[in-house]
Design brief:
It is a single chain. By secondary structure, this protein is of the alpha/beta class. The protein has 7 helices and 5 strands; from the N terminus they run E-H-E-H-H-E-H-E-H-H-E-H. Strands 2-3-1-4-5 form a 5-stranded parallel beta sheet, with helices on both faces. The N and C termini lie close together (5 Å).
């Protein structure tokens, strides 16, 4: 049985990381470190978004959580910063479970429309960062969720994580 682990995600904005993270948290009793909540906090505190302040808070809190030795869910995409996250986690003895949301552009556009995500309407959904992550580190991904599996993403994720934890 695994004792110190982090569950995290690879996928573009709006691809359903938070619903999966919340489902796992409820069912496994794990805390969530949520990047979106931290972004909102910075905007509210400063009445604007400041990237440097966000990164400072994110890094300090993530390191503090990892130093606590608690297993947790990292509700963010590791596509762009995998090597940094992996180095921090591995250096503190964590095992990592990665859920990759490999969704088509058409499904993502449907999700954005359903969520009324107007801020993402102009995004380039060819997913170059996600594709690059999969090309380099796809062998580390524990669970791939595609368009076909998307309607069952919560059950698929919970089942895979429970089996992995042991």
């Amino acid at each position: 049985m695994r004792t110190k682990y982090c569950i995290t995600f690879a996928g573009v904005p709006g691809s359903s990381k938070s619903p999966i993270a919340n489902h796992l948290s409820w069912n496994l009793g794990l805390p969530i470190f949520n990047n979106d909540t931290l972004r909102t906090e910075v905007k509210e505190d400063l009445l604007k978004f400041d990237q440097k302040e966000y990164e400072k808070r994110r890094d300090e809190r993530a390191i503090n959580l990892m130093d606590s030795g608690k297993s947790f869910i990292y509700d963010a995409s590791v596509d762009r910063m995998w090597e940094t996250h992996h180095r921090r986690l591995e250096g503190r003895g964590y095992e990592v479970f990665i859920i990759s949301l490999d969704l088509s552009e058409s499904l993502l556009r449907g999700i954005y429309k359903a969520k009324d995500y107007t801020e993402f309407a102009q995004l380039d959904l060819r997913q170059p960062e996600h594709d690059k992550f999969l090309e380099e580190f796809g062998h580390l991904v524990n669970l791939h969720i595609d368009d076909e599996g998307f309607p069952r993403r919560l059950e698929l994720s919970l089942g895979a994580v429970k089996a992995w934890i042991g």
